[in-house]
Amino acid sequence: MKRINVILVFIFSIYLCLMSYYLYTHQYYNVDIEAYVGLVYKTEYPNMKMEDIHKKVYTELEILNPKISAISQNDEEVAIGENTYYNTLSKNPKAYEEELQLFSVKPFYNFVNLMFFKLGFKVTTAISLTSILSYVLILVLIFTYLTRILKNYPLAFIITLIISLFKPLLEASRHASADSLSCLMLLLSFYTFVIRKNYLAATVFAMLCILTRPEYFILFSFLYILVYFYKNAIRISTSRLFLSYGYLFLSFFLIQYFNQISWSTLFMNQFTKVQIYPISHPDAFYFPDYLNFLKKNVMLDFNGSYFPLLLLFIVIILANQFSLQSKKSWAQCMFFGAVYASVFLRYLVFPSLANRMMIGFYLIIILALIYIQNSKTDIFKKTLEAGK
After folding, report:
1. Better-predicted residue by pLDDT, 1 or 57
2. DSSP per residue over 110-139, as a string?
3. N or C: which terminus of the chain carries fewer CB neighbours within 10 A?
């Protein structure tokens, strides 16, 4: 390795340490943390009564954020009774116990939080470390990927630094959420599939991604369809492809099998009317409310995200190299089509495009565009060139 490359790697390492310290000292304790802390305690102390877990959670969180259970008259209640809902949870162990089920559908994320807790960290620190270390590993993976395809350490270093300041990525790393970890698993799956050609590892990381955020199953389903059409070009057998997808389907199915809360109740709880008892006494689902919510918000949410801007760059870059006779051009168009189709289908299931939840989609698009525009490496070994 050239001397300049070694220096850049050293500077990058120092930068990651500084960013980790910044994120650790600037954590944002959103309302979801009370559920994730409760799940850690519920798993670690299975014999502890819910009343005791509830008291323990809110006593500890009050030190970090005294207003976590307060009702603010200045905050708009997006879902009817949202502010009242969190205040009720802080006082009602039964309602709190049922709310935990909303967050138990992310088993791998909860498992990682538990492992950090078992290592001796405070529970809130353990949850913060999951997001912070995911952020660091995402940047390490991006830097590694860029050096492989660009063959240019200074350019890879600059691009990685710019991505590290991407607002949705920083937001996800400051929240108690599964966004950073699911993004890391998604990128690892892509990297091991496309660069390393290790299909077993790619399958494992894809399963962990789904076990962290189940909605990524939609994206993987579309991408497996795309891979099926080009299986001969990338030299993967049909049997291996179906077996791999079977494991992903099994991961998604197991989450749904053990999930006690229906999609309709989840939708109402997040967007129209909160459910104090989503398991024992959920409200009746009213389909017109769902349609009205979609019609009212879909364009605002889409335009408020980075997807229109990224779509503009996709059109510009692909149009510059597009050829009707090129299999590679069509593969690139179908790839981005699969990503955007996944985003819209996901929106129908969970109508929110909050940017920190979209970092996996954003980074996949950005890294793919960098490859198409600047790559010095042919990932597909020329098997998708025009007419071949």
Report:
1. 57
2. HHHHHHHHHTT--HHHHHHHHHHHHHHHHH
3. N
